Amino acid sequence: MMSAPTQIPIRLAEELILLMLNERSGYLEMVPGWAFSCVMAGAVIADLTLEDRIDTDLKTLYLVDPTPTGDDLLDPTLKEIAESQETADTQYWIERNTGRSDEIVMATLDRLVERKILDYESGGFWGLSRSVSRSGTYQTHDLQIRQEAKARVLSVILNDVIPDPRDAILIALMHTCGGFKLLLEPEDYEEKLERIETIAKLDLVGRTVASAVKDSTAKPKTRRVLQTKPIPQLRIFDALRQRDFRTGNIPKAMYGIFQKYGPVVELPFKMRKATLVALMGPDTNQWVNKHGRFYLRSKDYIQDLERVFGASRTLPGLDGADHYKMRKSLQGAYSRAALTRRLPELVHLCRRSLGRWSEGDVFGAAEAFQNHVSSQISHLMIGVDCSHYVDELLEYEHRALVTQVQGALPNFMLSTPKMKRYGKRVRELQEAITASHTPAQRRGKPPDIADAILELHKNDPQFLPETDITFPFVAAMVASIYLGSGLAFAVYNMVRHPDLYARIHREAELLFGNGREPEAKDFSLDSIDVTHRLCMESARVYPVIPWQLRTVMNECIVSGFQIPPKTHLLICQTATHYADDLFKDPLEFDIDRYLPDRAEHTKPGAYAPYGLGTHTCLGSRWVELQMAVNLLLIAYHLKLEVEPVNYKIGINPFPTSAPNKKMKFRVAEITNPV
């Protein structure tokens, strides 16, 4: 456990991260690698010197005081130096500690968030907190006010301000790794290069550590040459033998392949005439979360779908700074808080839909719940009622996904007379949204996702032109396919476990019984504990989006396997959901695995129903609440049974996982009339 950050000084590693942070992209300017690792290790060595625990010169690093500093960022390195029997120089110890680079970076980012200097945003993005952005300062451990690192260091360089020793060390480390080439405009860099080099030599500690970092980067003493392995090839026969592929359980099938072939495997078929490589397992999940932004892009797999709707810039198709900008602009509209403000509407819409069913009715699970959810999505997200053509709209969107993203059907299947007719519904949807979102029409109404999209277009029409606003409207309705399928799986799991059905019904009674209209605060995790954990377990066993497609844009090494550019990746992030070393008895449906004393889903890389990395589902918190409210209302009003009783679950895996058409429910009893 890391030390309490408010009790210890702001370290050089923390201010290096602040110097490297790119506010436009939400992450660091530098691509992680050997040079970056040497700089972060060098910052720890420099801080130990400032703490009088070690001393250095150009030839030797000396232990001065082995007493721990009480800072978990520094003490592992200090302990290793103190216990070593070797006499070595600074370069040796910097290289020795490069293995801690990831640990140092993640601990530093967490610490800066705890200090309220940075804010963390889902998807692995960081930015200066509002208070620091406004004031340009932050508080140190001894309650002193310090100017923000980037502004302070740039002032030293550009305005000939005299630096203090710490800033001289920071400048030396940044200069060693070429950081100022990224921070400064080319003309400013050339003009101030001589001053940067002069400052970098001012402090003995900075000069010594920076020199060692430079030598480690150019001529490492201890760096091992990483031996890569050939990527194993999955034989078509082995793929066909996986029974779980035939039943549609993609995560379980991919875990079987992982067990036999390992975390990286070349699949026996191509995608768009390019090699298709699968990544799976907790280590590759962590790699995608930490490093995917530097090596992978999403544009290639989504661009044909974008063209169908006349778009070229969409949230799922953007990466880097543009993706972060759009995500940040829309995150409020997709948040749990946005849905909590409209809970009465959600409850009303859900009950209106449930009221259509009578005792004895039998209905198909996937289609019924997709339509059930689409009526909620269309009102809550885009503010229109498209119930009279929602079936046609969803079928067109489904066909577009299958033809343009997965290539499971030829392109002409989107141009049949029926699909052309259904495609006109997309234009009808956009016209309805635009007409209903004028200032006069929206006056007094809570803002929705369509408002956020139109506002972004209004404020920056070059970033989000008019041609690109149809896609996010359609994407909102596509979400109803995902959410409806997820709800169908959750209801199935509830019905198949009568004890859980009864417990969820009791939670619903406390919320809705005796005509009660619950408020947002009533839906705390304590009050919907069983419901929430059932939804989590359902998403583990039957994730709606079991994999993601990406293209390698920069050569990378993953788990010891070298993957060349232009390779298409199938990131099977949910294969870990069936790993018995991560989840006890993974084939059992067990909601207790999410209790605090087990918390199996918190193991690194274990649980990923909402995707990985920068493209992690922006609306995951919205989805969790909407799923819970729907499940509670279904349990409160209806007693459902699986039809037929002996039905064994089958999954349709394309374009996303959904129950097959054989899954049906029968309304056995209306326990509380709507």
Layout of secondary structure:
Elements: H1 12-20, E1 21-22, E2 27-28, H2 34-50, E3 54-56, E4 61-63, H3 75-83, H4 90-96, H5 101-114, E5 118-121, E6 125-128, H6 130-135, E7 137-139, E8 145-147, H7 149-158, H8 165-176, H9 179-183, H10 186-200, H11 204-218, H12 236-240, H13 243-247, H14 250-261, E9 264-271, E10 274-280, H15 282-295, E11 296-297, H16 299-308, H17 320-330, H18 336-340, H19 343-354, E12 362-364, H20 365-380, H21 390-406, H22 417-436, H23 439-442, H24 449-459, H25 470-496, H26 498-512, H27 529-541, E13 548-552, E14 556-558, E15 561-563, E16 568-572, H28 620-637, E17 638-643, E18 651-652, E19 658-659, E20 664-670
Parallel strand pairs: 10-16
Antiparallel strand pairs: 1-2, 3-4, 5-6, 7-8, 9-10, 11-13, 12-20, 13-16, 14-15, 17-20, 18-19
Helix pairs in contact: 1-8, 2-4, 2-5, 2-8, 2-11, 4-11, 8-10, 8-11, 16-21, 19-20, 19-28, 20-25, 21-22, 21-25, 25-27, 25-28, 26-27, 26-28
Characterise the protein shown here.
The chain has 674 residues and is of the alpha+beta class. It folds into 2 domains: 5-218, yeast vps74-n-term truncation variant domain like (yeast vps74-n-term truncation variant fold, Orthogonal Bundle), CATH 1.10.3630; 284-670, Cytochrome p450. It is 50% helix and 11% strand. The protein contains 28 helices and 20 strands. It has a 5-stranded mixed β-sheet with strand order 9-10-16-13-11, sandwiched between helices. A 3-stranded antiparallel β-sheet has the order 12-20-17. The two termini are 51 Å apart.
